[in-house]
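User: Some background: our group keeps a shared notebook of sequences we're curious about, and every so often someone picks one and asks for a predicted structure to add to the entry. Today it's my turn. The entry only has the sequence so far, pasted here. Could you supply the structure so I can complete it?
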Amino acid sequence: MAGQGGATLRILERADKEIMKLSRADRGAVWEFISKFRTNPNNPGLHFKQLKGDSRLYSARVSADHRALLLHAGDRDYLLVSVKHRKDVNEDLDRYAYQINRVTGGIEVFDLAPVGDSIVGRLMKADRASTARPALFEKVSDDDLIELGVAEPLLPAIRQLTSEDELQTFMEDVPSVTAEVLLQLFSGATVDEVRDQVTKPVTAEDPVDLDDYLTAVNRPATPVTTDDEALQAMLDEPFARWQVYLHPMQRKLVERDYTGPTRVSGGPGTGKTIVALHRVAHLVEQLPDGTDRPILLTTFNRNLAADLRARLLTLGGEKVLSRVDIFTIDKLASLVVREAGVGAGRRHIDDTRAVAEWRDMLLELGVQRWDPEFLNAEWGQVILGQVLTSRADYFLARRAGRGRTLTRADRDQIWQLAERFTLRLEEKGVWTWRQIAAAAARAEIDRADRAASRAAGSRYRHVVVDEAQDFSTAHWKMLRAMVSPTRNDMFIAGDTHQRIYDNYASLGSLGINIRGRSSRLTRCYRTTRQILAVALELLTGETYDDLDGGEDTLSGYRSLLRGEQPRLHGLRTWAEERDAIVAQLRSWGPAVDGSIAVCLPTKDMVAEIVARLDADGIPVAEIGPDGPKRADGVHVGTMHRFKGLEYRRMILGGVSNGLVPRAAIARYTDADPARYQRERARDRSLLFVAATRARDDLAIFWHGTHSPFVTDTLARRSVR
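Assistant: Of course. Here's the predicted structure to add to the notebook entry:
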């Protein structure tokens, strides 16, 4: 990047925040400056000069009105740390401080101005009357804060914080590790808990030399970009920041060398998908030159797969995309069975049709002991899910999460019914997605065995999974067979709190050992604290697994963003609720950019709202299996359709008892309590996923009696 006589110039994340506030013309001037500086920093037109004799800080001319503030890391290596108006660069130079964080080893730069726009300056100048309130962190020592990774130059300002509003404002412009430490402490976490959740994951792996800036600039804790394509995308489109910078913890997860499979979990908006995409790009960079596709990126549904492809193209260009296969897990299974010559000519049917076939068969046989939904789930999740091929295997199979205990005689009868049902579908020339997954797992295991006998390689060198919580056991068996157990073989991202399909798996039992290689992201970048608080309340009372036999939590899951409180409002009838939805949409203004959405629990309600908005002249687009049918207008869909999507403003309609959760699951309350609890948790997850699609505003409506899932939120508001 630095040619003869040139220099290396990296852009620090804090500079990006200032650059994004500039006009498009001024952002173009920044890009031109970067190009000139890299070619020849001594170009007379740049006016490149040291600010103080003993300082690493330099300034250079960006345009007639703007100057770049640069930090010299060593040799001919510089960091662009700020872009300011020319009058602000040369005044009060003592305002600028910089250091290497003794915990993370990353470079941190501060603006300690006592006046002006500096966040620290505003706090130091705040009304002394506020000091009558106790300081927020008076019980935490300076030594503890420093040990946790808080930037030392900020301690005086931290000691002045006395309110949540001051803290939120303060955190907007300080290093991310400092912000997260303070937020967790404010939320009630102990010093030990913060050390484990925040500090430990970003601690430098090598000893930190507080004077070695050249080493520090290359650590994951120094959030910089040097890639020209990524930088240009950021300058052209401010919302492309996600592709340029990663939080230090995210970067460490992306670039780490793992001894085997690893899992990354975290709540909605914590960056799991972004981390997975960057991991793919990182793995591509390690590949030898070639034209093959040794990396698989897979997810559950079609609109997510299309989104992953588009994002990866933006992130890494055609060079990266050309080395990666991107498929939904069901599409991948279909390709495997087609390659193996299995099931030729058979059409797939969904679970609704499968349950209907079970019902018809049971009526024909006069069997009344088993209901078709139970048999379909037992067949799909246990027999097909675990790829069982004999009655003996079924007798020994574990039925984790199935709830209802079965005797040996029960299993014998179910196996016979399953065999008869399988033959019935085969005679009709149809099969289910679960059958396809099981057939694909068997075919891929056979292929892997044949390849091993010939000392041939696996189908893929690396497998990266997004939305892992929705994969079935058969899917995991297929994936395990596609990649040899070795270093960096599988990178798995998911959150079981967002499981919206009836799939459960224990990875360790399938040869995917993630113990000791699991990490959890806790910072939400998508939605506000106010929306997040309501969304978390929707999950109250449920427990969720960690894909490996343990329990997963959202402990420490927080947002630094602020916004309006979500609106919760009940109406008497569905007709009144439709009117309220239209009124809310009109109050938000036109959705010309597709940034507003309405989420509903049933297809019929979606159809009614689409028709109503169309009749009222409000542009509307229904969300189908491949995403919204048009980019603009109000997007309307069922809760399942919103997985992976994001909107500025969201309405969750029909959040009524009997709709959320579904009234149909009530029949399991006594007959099958475990299944009832599982179905109820799945409906909670659907509502949680929908609520966390909103970035800025959320409105929750219902008619009649409200869903029991919003009871806690309503109770909290009534107390206030």
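Suggested note for the entry: The first strand starts at residue 8 and ends at 12. The longest helix spans residues 408-428.
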